[in-house]
Amino acid sequence: MSNSYEPLDVCVLIPCYNNLPGLFRTLQSICYPPGKLLVLVVDDGSEVPVTLDILRNSNINFPSIHVLNLEQNSGITLALNAGLKWIEDNLCVRYIARLDCADICHPEKFYKQVTFLNANPAIGFIGSWCTFQTPNATLQYGYSTPTAHSKIIREMHYRNVFIHPTVMFRVELIKTLGYYPTNYPHVEDYAYFWRMVKRTKTAILDDFLVTCEINVKGISIKNRKKQLKGRYNVVSEFGSIPHLKLLGMAKLRAMMLVPYYLILLLKNRKRRAN
């Protein structure tokens, strides 16, 4: 694919593993002018491989899709890095965005994020607020965060301020930072985003632009203890404000003792109370 044409605004990177229904729902939610956005689906060795023919036969009215098929399941980090490499080698694009299968975009998500980055050239990496919910919406809560760079840095010591499916960043950053780190299993995004925060100005849009699915069988929940240990290691490695670093590590140790379903119930109860 030539990279000599007018740059695309956005390439949306979506890894997929055995989740065609979720992929269909996500693709149907993407809104942006034709010819200015490309979706790159990285099929991570699914039992039934994702193909363009399958997507075209699904009645999804979204022609700007490329599928990159990996021969075997390699895990999300290697799938994402394969996607980033393909983008570097094949596209002329300004921004890279991320979604996961079953995430639902607000109709104005990409318009608002592209407009913000175009208007703020000093900012290289952004996210937004989002909503988490189970497929039947019995559990639901909003995820809001600080929006300014200085406060984002402080909050990153306690949690990942950037929810993966909300992010968008300038393509130039992968030339200086490289790809997702492979030595932080289950928290590759947290480590990568810490690198972003230290490299460029960041921001969060105070708007709920994505609905993320809470999947009780998903890799994040199944590997929660490993994920918390990984987050502990990330804060230990990247934390830049000593007292916040110690507090963040202490919080993560405490979270290892609390069952995840209790956290979800508390968040859901708080939402209903509000």
UniProtKB/TrEMBL annotation:
Domain Glycosyltransferase 2-like: from-to ranges: 11-175
Keywords attached to this entry: Glycosyltransferase, Transferase
Matching SUPFAM superfamilies: Nucleotide-diphospho-sugar transferases
Stretch forming the signal peptide: none
Gene3D superfamilies linked to this entry: Spore Coat Polysaccharide Biosynthesis Protein SpsA, Chain A
MF-aspect GO terms: glycosyltransferase activity
Family under the similarity heading: Belongs to the glycosyltransferase 2 family.
Name of the protein described by the UniProt record: Glycosyltransferase
